[in-house]
Write a structure and sequence with these properties.
alpha+beta; five-stranded mixed beta sheet; elongated; DUF2285 domain-containing protein; RovC-like_DNA-bd
């Protein structure tokens, strides 16, 4: 039995638009010249099909709704919803992985957002361990910067409080927003 740290994380396509929906192609579609196998080790069975992930880091999740398809008869289902552009991007990453080409970076989080997310989790971990905001500030920004100015009026203090507050919101369910692109209406 795998530990919780070794278990694959599986998201439904509704929660994670980055999950590519794979099924059987229509009968009129000619078969692929070289069939593609989706028999991967990190798969899980569910009522809706078989979940799996491509890539060394499992960065390209998919749901094979047909279970095992006929050789060379695969198709991708693309729901026409508000997450369409994100789904198309996921399909591109899926295809690049299948073709053993370099996979484009997932753009749902910018490098800045990834860095801020890491700081939020560090701040939340510190707070959960009983650290004060000042102690968290020292861990994140360094002792010299934090002790170099009055803490009560320091912009670093406001930053640490915001990191903890935003991390708490993510932990409380806001993390689901990380699975979607932020698009202007």
């Amino acid at each position: 039995m795998l530990s919780i740290l070794d278990q694959p994380v599986i998201w439904s396509p509704h929660a994670n638009p980055g999950t590519v929906l794979v099924g059987e192609a229509p009968a009129f579609q000619p078969p692929l010249p070289r069939p593609i196998a989706l028999d991967l080790p990190s798969q899980a069975e569910a009522e809706e099909g078989r979940y799996g992930a491509f890539g060394t880091d499992g960065s390209v999740p998919f749901l094979n709704m047909a279970g095992r398809t006929r050789a060379g008869s695969m198709a991708i289902l693309l729901p026409l919803d508000d997450d369409l552009l994100g789904r198309i991007e996921a399909i591109q990453r899926f295809w690049q992985t299948l073709k053993a080409r370099p996979v484009p970076r997932d753009t749902r989080m910018t490098p800045y957002q990834r860095q801020r997310f890491r700081l939020m989790m560090q701040a939340a971990d510190g707070r959960a361990a009983g650290a004060s905001y000042r102690e968290i500030g020292i861990a994140i920004y360094g002792e010299r910067r934090v002790l170099g100015e009055p803490w009560k009026t320091s912009p670093l203090r406001a930053s640490v409080i915001a990191l903890v507050r935003n991390a708490s919101a993510l932990i409380g369910g806001g993390y689901l927003g990380l699975l979607r692109h932020r698009r202007k209406p």
